[in-house]
Design brief:
Blueprint lengths: L15 E3 L4 E6 L5 E6 L1 H11 L4 E3 L7 H13 L2 E2 L10 E7 L5 E6 L10 H9 L6 E5 L8 H13 L3 E5 L10 H12 L4 E5 H6 L7 H11 L5 E5 L5 E5 L4 E6 L11 H20 L4 H6 L3 H18 L10 H10 L2 E5 L1
Parallel strand pairs: 1-4, 1-8, 2-6, 4-5, 8-9, 9-10, 10-11
Antiparallel strand pairs: 2-3, 6-7, 11-12, 12-13, 13-14
Helix pairs in contact: 1-8, 3-4, 8-10, 10-11
């Protein structure tokens, strides 16, 4: 699939800056061999946002090794800007991915002394300072490792203070964290800075959020973070919810079963679709502050953004590896495929 993003994305001002892992997914094939795929949740998000027409910058460095060069080349092909265009000596992160019979991934990570962790809080802050049109910053997933708290948390605080919209995708990987309690505390500290939170039902389990079911837990998490305006809850084949701090609650689910190849990158494509739709809405309305815009979203605007996000994820799971759809592809899919979607 080729990107059909807005053709102006390569020259569009940077409106989103993303910090976190860029790695190689080694995906196990049925014959026991491994297929190397470019990946990492925040790397995927960069690509997905750019393909949907959002000016996007990746803030972390990449390796000078072969994998690092391939990661950089794909970002360039998708129109993502690099805050650190010069490669570093550290090697590229690796993730070994085994898929179960339903296409769900199980990960093992190799992340000591790697390129994407060769970054500092001040470096991230300085890179964002050079972006006059910047409206959204995002991190999550492996960047929420407790061992990297001194890097990402001060940066998030600085971005929130600067009036930018902070987005945190919890995307927990508890099996590879040596201290689960410290990891959980770090994730909660990052969520406490977020204007927009994204979690899956599995994330809520790992975070030990109380509640009878995933939706009740999501409501509890939003209530526990009063600075947040939106919380997106993904439920895999059961669709997704978008909860607003004003009480609006929307749900969307594909009406027909999808031909799922694998789910790698689905959550990243979902978040990219959500942010791309919201940014376009804000731009169309001429709103100066994106944070103020999401604070006053109508139920209809929430539902439209959620549907586009779900569509973006649906298209991704029909491909092997992470192949994020462009804006027009997602719009066309939404037009041709029915979905159940109602304000709750």
């Amino acid at each position: 699939m080729t990107s059909d993003a807005n053709t102006s994305f390569t020259t569009a001002p940077v409106r989103a800056a993303i910090a976190g892992e860029a790695l190689i997914d080694l995906i196990r094939r049925p014959d026991g061999s491994y297929l190397p795929c470019l990946g990492g949740a925040l790397y995927n998000l960069c690509r997905a946002l750019a393909r949907q027409g959002v000016g996007t910058q990746y803030l972390n460095p990449l390796s000078r090794d072969r994998f690092g060069r391939e990661l950089a080349a794909q970002l360039a092909a998708d129109g993502v800007h690099l805050a650190r265009p010069e490669p570093v000596q550290q090697v590229t992160s690796l993730a070994v991915v085994n898929l179960d019979e339903h296409g769900h991934p199980d990960y093992a990570f190799y992340r000591d002394g790697v390129a994407d962790r060769a970054v500092s809080a001040q470096g991230l802050v300085d890179a964002c300072t050079t972006l006059p049109a910047l409206q959204v910053v995002c991190t999550g997933a492996l960047a929420l490792d407790a061992r990297d708290t001194a890097v990402y948390l001060p940066w998030l605080v600085a971005q929130r203070t600067a009036g930018r919209c902070v987005v945190v995708d919890a995307n927990l990987r508890p099996s590879v964290m040596p201290d689960l309690a410290a990891y959980r505390a770090t994730v909660h500290a990052a969520l406490a800075q977020a204007d927009i939170i994204k979690v899956s039902d599995e994330d809520l389990d790992h975070l030990a959020v109380p509640g009878a079911d995933a939706l009740a837990r999501a409501r509890q998490l939003l209530a526990a973070n009063p600075q947040a305006h939106l919380l997106a809850l993904t439920l895999g084949a059961e669709g997704a919810w978008l909860l607003h701090s004003n009480g609006t609650q929307c749900v969307a689910k594909e009406a027909q079963l999808l031909n799922v190849v694998d789910t790698v990158g689905a959550g990243d494509s979902f978040l990219a679709g959500l942010l791309a739709h919201l940014l376009r809405q804000a731009q169309a309305e001429g709103v100066a502050s994106f944070v103020q815009f999401i604070d006053t979203l109508s139920a209809k605007a929430c539902q439209q953004a959620l549907r586009h996000a779900l569509t973006s994820a649906s298209l991704c799971v029909t491909e092997q590896g992470c192949v994020p759809p462009g804006w027009e592809a997602a719009r066309e899919w939404s037009r041709l495929h029915a979905a159940t979607q109602d304000p709750a």
